[in-house]
Amino acid sequence: MTTPDREDEMTPDMVLAMDYALGALERAERRAVETRLRSDPAFRALVADWQAQLAPLDGETPPVPVPDSVWQGIAAEIAPVPRRAAAETPKPGLWQSLALWRSLAFAGTAAAVIAIAQVNPPAPPPGAPPQLLVASLAGADGKPLLAAAYDPLRGSVVLTPATQRDDAGKSPELWVIEGDKPPRSLGVIDIHGPNSHALAAKQLTGLQPGATLAISIEPLGGSKTGLPTGPVVATGKLSAV
Amino acid sequence: MASEGAAELAALLARAADGDQAAFQDFYNRTSAKLFGIILRILAERGEAEDVLQEVYVTVWRKAAEFDAARASPVTWVATIARNRAIDRLRARAVRPQAPMEDAIDMADTSPNAEQLLAASGEAALVHRALASLEPRHAAAIRSCYFEGVTYETLAEREGVPVGTLKSWVRRGLIRMKAGLSAAEGSA
User: Which of A54, A218, A220 is most worth mutating to test chain B (most B CB atoms within 10 A of its CB)?
Assistant: First the structure.
């Protein structure tokens, strides 16, 4: 990536990427950048380039021994969630490998199909009929907010908003709740861009009918705590059809 | 930060992405002291730094499958996550001053000592040389932003210069540093 020799020859994006990678921006500016990073690959490349330039500086920072309690805390947080469906007996209805959306526009006309994420679908278990999983996410008043469907044959997720919301300045975040385990984040949904986003397959493996999907409204960039902190605007159970 | 350990760390991350907790613990054991150093430099408070370190590794565990060895070294990837989390935490502190004045003066001296430089990899030495060729105040401002996570505004106040002046020091400095690095790489 070529950077001009002088600041006044740089585009505002180049300057912003540099300021962000250096770490000098204020909180609101950082959040604006982070929201953009999720949906703008060209800008993401500018930032990554500066991060790589600056990274060798970390070689100057001396390591500091970490108390054992930190790993214990991490181990407690990562232990309870089954990580991989492959470790379990394959069953029909598992969301084996699922790319999901990151981005949906609530604004706009009702019932527009807004994201179709294509992935390489895994072969269905031998002998098992492929299964379609669907969830209708509705608010507390029972009004449907959107429908999500995963088709393992096509390997695609189709999201259909049924109403519109205005959450400017906030980030809707998608969660999955399996049994009595704590909610697990499936990522922030960018409501401003129409692009789809592939989630890591491991986040979705093992999802079965009966798991609950939920959307909460979080501060820009998503919950900082790893758990929903804002109002839950919609929930719905996955079911097989 | 391309080291012989990078491939090994990348392999551990790949296993963590498959749910291998032992591999992840190995990855943690090899990288956490480094990240703790980075976070502590930004936050200064140990308890807060430990919290952030824990958050960082939970994030790394969840995002391990997103790591792309073609785009960054494993250490750079996790160090970037750590810096960003630490800076977010710093910014989330209320408006109270980040450090008493004496501490701020202490922290302003972020030049590496000889020992650290010797320990630094070849790449770090290149960056250091590129920074050393800048005007000292410009290089110091870049270091303060990077190592302490201070904003342009805070640093301008500390240095007693207008924000615009400080931004211009840092940005011009970074552009020159990058140009110097490209030249060094080109001649290597």
Answer: A54
CA-closest candidate to residue A136, choices A241, A206, A238: A238
Shortest CA gap B177–chain A (Å): 9
Domain endpoint, select from B77, B96, B115: B96
Tell me the sheet residues that pair with A175.
A185, A214
> What is the CB-side half-sphere exposure of residue A228 using CA atoms within 13 A?
21
Pair of tokens at residue B118? 């010797």
Residues in chain A: 241
pLDDT tens digits for B109-139?
445 555 555 555 677 788 888 888 999 999 9
**Interchain pair B126, A6: CB under 8 A:** no
Quick check: helix, strand or coil at residue B73? coil
The residues, ordered by sequence, that sit 6+ positions from A143 with a Cβ below 8 Å of its Cβ are A162, A163
Domains contained in chain A, number: 2
Higher-pLDDT residue of A67, B127: A67
Instruction: Tell whether A120 and A28 lie within a shared domain.
Output: no
Are B67 and B151 within one domain? Answer: no
